[in-house]
Structure formats: C-alpha cells, structure tokens
Amino acid sequence: MKVFVTGATGYIGRAVAEAFRRKGHQVAGLTRSAAKAAELDAREIEPVVGDMRDYSTWEKGASGADVHVHCAVEYGAEYQALDRATVEALLGLGGRLIYTSGVWQYGPCGDAPVDETDAFTGKPLLPWRSDHEELVMLSRGLVIRPGCVYGATGGLTALWFEGAAEKKAAPIVGEGNNRWAMIHRDDLAELYVRAAERGADGALFNGADRSRQTVREMASAASRAAGAEGALQSLTLGAAEKRWGDGARPGPRPAHRLLEGDALPRLGAPLRGLRPARRPPPRLLEGGPPGAPGVIAILTAQQNG
Fold this sequence. Notes:
This protein is of the alpha/beta class. It has two domains: 174 residues, Rossmann fold (3-Layer(aba) Sandwich); 91 residues. It is 35% helix and 17% strand. About 13% of the residues have low confidence.
C-alpha cells in the first residue's frame, strides 16, 4: 500500500510511519522541518515538507495514497478549524482515512469500564472532535482513540521522568488514585498497520492495553527508574495547568478511566500490551499474561531503553 502520514516526525506519527515502512509499505510523511525531513529519508520514508495550514504544500505528496493517517496536532487557537480542514482535505483525496483521536473523548467514567459502544454517550473533552470522528466514520474511514501513550521519549509519562530527574519527584495531580488507559507506542503503531491492512473502515477502535494501575503507582515506578526513589509531587489541577498550559496537556486530570474494546478480536493476534477485551483478571503490577510485561515493568526499564 501507499501510505501518507501527517505529523510523521511527531511522537505517535513517527512510530506509525516507521511501522508501516517495516511492513514493506510505501510511506510518505508530512513534516514542517527540512532537518526532520532528513530523518525520515534515513528511515526510507519519503519526506513531504509542508504545513497543514497550506494545503498546496502537501497535496501532491498525499495524492494517490491508498491510506491517509492523520496524526498531526496543532495546539492553539486554530486547533479545531485546522483539524477539520485537514480531515476534509484528506477525505477529498480518496483512499481511506485513519483519524487519531483519544480516549479522553469518553470524559469522566467513574470506576466503570467503557468500550466503543459508549463512544458518543459521555461528556467528551473536546466536543468538536467527536464531530470530526463521526465525519470520518460516515466517510468509511477509521477512528482510533489511543490511551495514554508511553515508550521511548515523549508522551505524558515523560513528565514523570523529567520531574524525577530535575526536581527529584515525579509530578501527579491530586492523590493520583485515578487510572489511565495505557498503550505502548509500538503497540499503537502496530494497531494502525493492522487496521489498514485488514480493511477496517467505518469504525472506531480504542487503542488501550489492559493495564489497571493507578497514576500514583505508575508515576512512582517512573520516579524509581529515574533515581528519585519513588518520590512524588502532588499538584492541584490549577498548578498543573499553570505548569503545562491550560488544555495543552489534557491527560493529568482527576477522573477514573478504565477502557475495554474490540480492536484486538477484530484485528488479529495479541500485541505485547494489547489483550482481548472483557477477559479479566487485569494485568499485575510487575507482570501480565505470558510474554507481556506489565506497564510498571516497562516504565521501570524505559529510562534505560
């Protein structure tokens, strides 16, 4: 397949582009930087230097692709309008569109698990994004809602490592007794590839493993890995937003989110972190199903990875 990826040098987009290329697909990736274009070229990904705001800079590079994967995010005042314009432009090019959303769209869930059948029943973090999701699905595209992504450098878990390394304590919001749906970056990238290869369309999948640890437990593991002996710094929501920007980092919010889903049964054999939904017991702090290290173990090893 010929695949075009927006945000191909970003945290998720890079992993997705590389995963498609490893499977032998022809991949082109959008980036704004000539320097980062060289990084894509070194990975046998055709760089398309352009800006989402200017369709003319990337129209040619995206044309003719069998699959368009939208991973780019532009936080700021233009976020909603630019995302909508990009979705409409990609849909207009033909092929299939895979749209990156997020599990934060479920809103606060309490302690109850939710799955794809609840996708449009809660109070989403960004109501307009749900409209974009529905547009993609009605156009026979695919929506993926990743959990909190970890692995390599970047993502929300990087805040824990940075805090532990620089301030000798990993920051959390409140007591950290809330739970995040998690997924390793490499597993998420593989999910995109499987969805594209198996022709899934007109659907929405959660990209989340079966981790059930609290934020406090995971942040403590990251703190230990960074040499801060598990020390944590509890922040109020206001202090967290002041540090990271109001709305710029939607992850650290005090709400319980446990997710199940049907991506795995429909798309194939288990990945390292993904396991079939609705099959307890949850993964253990330091283990999990055979061959699948738990999120705590992975976070503990991440600093040296």
